[in-house]
Write a structure and sequence with these properties.
- The protein is built from ten helices and twelve strands.
- With about 250 residues, the chain is α/β, with parallel strands linked by helices.
- A six-stranded mixed sheet has the order 6-5-4-7-9-8. Strands 1-2-3 form a three-stranded antiparallel sheet, covered by helices on one side.
- The radius of gyration is 18 Å and the shape is globular.
- The model has no long low-confidence stretch (mean pLDDT about 90).
């Protein structure tokens, strides 16, 4: 992830105006700190779809991992379907073996990975989340099947078309905002939320005013209050600029 100059400038101006800028993402803490380091954001961040809230130094303020036995059951069910997930423990990524899909994932997210062999022989700690990487159509079918077995016990959603993510039940970006709003004293009514992926639905629903970028998932665009230009056109920066100009 690379933030362009216009976006960095819009974030800086927003912070200078005394407005909190909170990153809400499915990414790891280490990944998002690296990506947003140039933006100079000193507010806490919501990571792992809301399973983790961390401060600007990377210290975890909230962690809602998947219970160990449930995680093992999920991994076994995925194996029966021919899938082996990415496993996240203590902000590190582990896989059974490195594959082209794993390599593409780690390159995209700029993180390292450790190969551990059979996951059920290795896993002894509660993972923050599980992610299956693969063909979007195949993951759509897998999502339906896994929700039948685990939908009441885990939060299952796509972050991108080729990432199917599993988290503890009740873990969403909206739940992360509930926690952080109580800690920091801000409210939904005074929050503008931006989203694009299917895993942003609860985030967009949480904000008092919600914005979807033009290239967002159709479900996100359907519930947003407004649709701004695409990420390629730095739509979020354009909205921040307009909001700041309206305050002048």
């Amino acid at each position: 992830m690379t933030l362009h100059a216009r976006t960095l400038d819009a974030i800086a101006r927003t912070r200078e105006a005394g407005i909190h800028v909170i990153v809400v993402t499915g990414r790891m803490v280490s990944s998002i700190r690296h990506a947003f380091g140039p933006a100079g954001i000193y507010d806490p961040m919501i990571c792992y779809q809301g399973a983790v809230v961390a401060d600007a130094e990377g210290n975890w303020l909230r962690h809602e991992p998947i219970p160990l036995e449930l995680a093992r059951e999920t991994i076994a069910a995925l194996a029966d379907e021919g899938w082996s997930p990415n496993v996240y423990v203590d902000d590190r990524l582990y896989v059974e073996r490195k594959t082209p899909e794993v390599e593409r994932y780690t390159t995209l997210n700029e993180v390292g990975v450790t190969e551990v062999g059979p996951l059920l022989d290795w896993l002894e700690a509660t993972p923050t989340k599980l992610v299956v990487v693969g063909d979007p159509a195949k993951l759509d079918a897998l999502e339906v099947h896994m929700k039948k077995s685990f939908g009441s016990r885990e939060h299952i959603s796509k972050s991108l078309p080729y990432f199917l993510e599993f988290a503890q039940a009740g873990v969403t970006k909206g739940a992360g905002l509930d926690f952080l709003a109580e800690q920091m004293g801000f409210t939904r009514e005074h929050t503008v939320a931006f989203g694009d992926g299917e895993n942003d639905i609860e985030l967009v629903e949480w904000g008092g005013y919600s914005v979807a970028v033009e290239n967002a998932h159709e479900r996100v665009k359907a519930i947003a209050d407004w649709v701004c230009p695409s990420a390629e056109e730095q739509g979020v920066a354009q909205v921040l600029e307009a909001l700041l100009d309206s305050r002048a």
